[in-house]
Amino acid sequence: MALYVQKFGGTSVGSVERIKAVAEKVKRFRDNGHQVVVVVSAMSGETNRLVDLASQINDEPTPRELDMLVSTGEQVTISLLAMALQKLGVPATSYTGAQVGIQTDSAYTKARIQRIETDDIQSDLDDGQVVVVAGFQGVDEEGNITTLGRGGSDTTGVALAAALKADECQIYTDVDGVYTTDPRVCSKARRLETITVEEMLELASLGSKVLQIRAVEFAGKYNVPLRVLSSFEDGGNGTLIIADTDDEEDSMEEPLISGIAFTANEAKLTLLNTPDVPGVASRILGPIADANIEIDMIVQNVAPAGDYTDFTFTVGKGDYKQTMKILKEQVIPDLGGGELRGDDNIAKVSLVGVGMRSHAGIASKMFRVLADENINIRMVSTSEIKISVVIDEKHMELGVRALHKAFGLDKDDIEQE
Ligand code: ASP
Ligand code: MG
Questions:
Q1: Under CATH, what is the fold of the domain 3-174?
Q2: From the alpha carbon of 10, which atom of ligand 1 is closest?
Q3: For a substitution probing ligand 1, which of 7, 11, 40, 41 has the most ligand atoms within 8 Å of its CB?
Q4: What are the φ/ψ torsions at residue 277 (nearest 5 degrees)?
Q5: Which residues pair with 228 in a beta bridge?
Q6: pTM for this entry
Q7: 260-416 belongs to which CATH class?
Q8: Predicted local distance difference test score (pLDDT) of residue 210
Q9: Is the shortest distance between the CB of 77 and ligand 1 below 6 Å?
Q10: Residues with Cβ < 8 Å from 63, sequence gap 6 or more?
Q11: Residue ranges of the domains in the chain?
C-alpha cells in the first residue's frame, strides 16, 4: 500500500466529464489498495474569469479581496470531485485550504506555506476516505484566506506530499511528461524518463510551463518524489523528477544535454559608449530595478581604450518600452552621452543538462551548430548546467531544431541506439 498525493490541473477538471474521469482514475488507485489525497485546481479559465470580474469593478482591488475571490474557483472543483467519487461508491471528503490547516504567511496573492496540520487528513485516510483538498490556497494566522500565486496548486500538492511523507506526488496535466523541448516546435522532441530537480528548475525558469517553479524547489528541499503524468492517457510513466546526484560516477553516465528551452519573450537594450568607471552598472540598472523591472542577461564589454564601454542587457518584452524610457529620461542624462539601441525581435535559446558540468566543449559545439545554420549569436551567458544564447527571433525554431539534433536528443536517434 502506498500513499499518493495526486494533483489535477485546470484542464483535467475543466468539465463535468473531465471531473468524472478524474474520479474514475482516483478510484482505480484506491481499488488497488492505495491511499489517495487529491489536490485540484479551479476549472480551466475560471481563475482568469474571476480576476477579470474583479478588474471590471476595481482596477486596484486590495490583495486580500482578490484572494478571497480567486480562491473560490478551487472550492467548486473539490466539492464536485468529492461528489463524483461518492457517486462511484468511494467515500470522499473535500476540504478548503483553511479547513485542512494549510498555514501561510500573509503575503496575499503570493503567500508561502509555513505549516500543514496533517492529523485530520491522516485520520480520514485511515478511515478509508479519499481526501480532496483545494489547491492554491491557505490561511494566515489571523484566519484570512491567502493564495500561493498563479499555478500554486502544484505547490499545494508537493507541500502536502512532504507533510504526509507520501510515497509520491503525482502531477496530472495535459502533457504526458517533461520533454527535451517543446514538441510543437520540434516534432522529434521526446519525453524524459527522469530529470533532476536542478535541470527542471532551469527549464521551468526558462519558459517551460509544465510545473510551478516553487513546487519544484519545494520537492527538492523536502526530497519529495515528484512525477508529471498525463491525466488524459492511462498507463504512461510520465517523467520522474529526482534529487540531484552528486555522484561523479553517475554523472558521467548522464546525457550531456537534457533539454532545450527557448523564449521569444525578451527584448535587448544596449547603451553604447558609457563611461567605464566604477558604479556605472548600478547607475544603469538601479533605476530599472526601482521600477520593478526584472533584468535577465547582462553583458558589459571590456573597454578597448579603457574609457568607454558598451553595456547590454535583456528584459521581458512587456517591459521593453518602459525600460527604453527610463534609459532615455533618467540614465543617459545622469551618465552623460551614450547612444541607445534596442531590439525586441530576439529569442533566447538555452541548453540545460547536469552532464555539461563534467564536459568541456559544449559551448563551442553549440556555437558551431548555430554557425552552420548561419545564425548569428548576439549574447551568451552560462551557468554550471546551462548555456544560453540570444539570437534573432526569426531563427529561433531553426536553431532549436538544429541543436536538438546535434546534441542527440532527436527521438529517432535514441530509438536506434
Ligand atoms: N487556479 C489557480 C491558477 O489558475 C491555481 C492553479 O491552477 O494551480 O493559477
Ligand atoms: Mg498549472
A1: Carbamate kinase (3.40.1160)
A2: 7
A3: 41
A4: -135, 160
A5: 171, 239
A6: 0.84
A7: alpha beta
A8: 78
A9: no
A10: 108, 109
A11: 3-174, 260-416
Q: What is the distance between the alpha carbons of residues 102 and 120, in angstroms, rounded to a whole number? A: 12
Ligand nearest to the CA of 209: 2
Q: Is the pLDDT of residue 181 over 90?
A: yes
What phi and psi values does residue 311 have, to the nearest 5 degrees?
A: -130, 120
Q: Tens of pLDDT along 129-171?
A: 999 999 999 999 999 999 999 999 999 999 999 999 999 999 9
Probe residue for ligand 1, chosen from 96, 150, 171 as the CB with the greatest number of ligand atoms within 8 Å? 150
Task: State yes or no: 194 annotated in a binding site.
Answer: no
What protein residues have CB closer than 5 angstroms to ion ligand 2?
Answer: 9, 151
In this structure, what are the phi and psi dihedrals at residue 176, rounded to the nearest 5 degrees?
-95, 20
Q: C-alpha cell of 345?
A: 525581435
Q: Which amino acid is at 283?
A: R
**pLDDT single digits (tens) 326-355:** 999 999 998 876 799 999 999 999 999 998
10 lines ligand 1 (CB under 6 A): yes
Contact 362, 387 (CB under 8 A): yes
Model pLDDT, residue 308? 84
Cell matching residue 341? 539601441
